[in-house]
């Protein structure tokens, strides 16, 4: 709470300095003060968590809650195409749209995987209409995420950053030294990036709140049907075996030709090494026999 009051104090001082005739050097010096540096070290997420109880009460009274709804629904249907046409009509009736649409077929099933965006006010009515189709519900889950505090926090930060931007631009107009101009310009650049990031996040949250998301899976079981594996005719198999053997023989000859130098060297070297080995073995046996006779 102390740090939040500190932030309010800084905003007040900045606004008052904008109306006064203080020099840009005064404002730049203010950036170097210890309590200003302390603002950069504040863990705003932790501050919001500590202050969440008090903020929740205020939000519930003053601000419409921002809820992101996401659902997952899996159905086993009797006729996949008919059910898909029914879903198409329901999507149009609630002013929704398909974000993603996939059809795949396996050995046992045909499956439609649909990601549907629906205006939040029509979300429950749309799901109820889907369930009234008489199909088997395999799985259903609905998630509601409250992002009100994040939304309010982002709006507050955005407003404060825009106020700081006005102050820095006023300072830039009256800056005298190149060093001051560079410092202020860098602050302005960082603020612009932060503002753009905050605006993008707010737009994303607004879109998620305005349009709920339903992940709908429609599947139809295929009737079992035995399909015999196709086999080649006997004559075709013999022909493939003949040509395959011939190709392997040609590859063998190619390998011999490609390595003819190594093969020739081995043919010359092997007899020489073999004769030396025979002489060594003969001498070893003779030495052994001599030692036995002497013993």
Secondary-structure blueprint of this entry?
Layout: H1 2-19, H2 24-31, H3 34-40, H4 44-50, H5 52-62, E1 67-76, H6 80-93, E2 97-105, E3 109-119, H7 123-131, E4 136-146, H8 148-174, H9 178-210, E5 211-221, H10 234-258, H11 260-294
Parallel strand pairs: 1-5
Antiparallel strand pairs: 1-4, 2-3, 3-5
How would you sum up this structure in a few lines?
About 65% of the residues lie in helices and about 20% in strands.
Structural account:
The protein has 295 residues and is α+β, with helices and mostly antiparallel strands. The chain has a domain at 240-287. It is 66% helix and 18% strand. It is built from eleven helices and five strands; from the N terminus they run H-H-H-H-H-E-H-E-E-H-E-H-H-E-H-H. It has helices at 2-19, 24-31, 34-40, 44-50, 52-62, 80-93, 123-131, 148-174, 178-210, 234-258, 260-294, and strands at residues 67-76, 97-105, 109-119, 136-146, 211-221. A five-stranded mixed β-sheet has the order 2-3-5-1-4. A hairpin with a 3-residue loop joins strand 2 (97-105) and strand 3. Helix 1 (2-19) runs parallel beside helix 8 and helix 8 (148-174) runs antiparallel to helix 9 (178-210). The chain is flat. 10% of the residues are buried.
Brief descriptors of the model:
alpha+beta, 5-stranded mixed sheet
**Low-confidence spans:** 1-53
From the spread of the alpha carbons, the general shape counts as flat
Query: Helical percent range?
Result: 55-70%
| Straight-line distance between termini | 106 Å
Structural class: alpha+beta
- Spatial ordering of strands, largest sheet: 2-3-5-1-4
Strand content: 15-25%
Estimate the mean pLDDT confidence: 78
List how many beta strands DSSP finds: 5
Order of helices and strands: HHHHHEHEEHEHHEHH
DSSP helix count?
11
| Biggest sheet character | 5 strands, mixed
CA-atom Rg in angstroms: 41 Å
Q: What is the oligomeric state here?
A: single chain
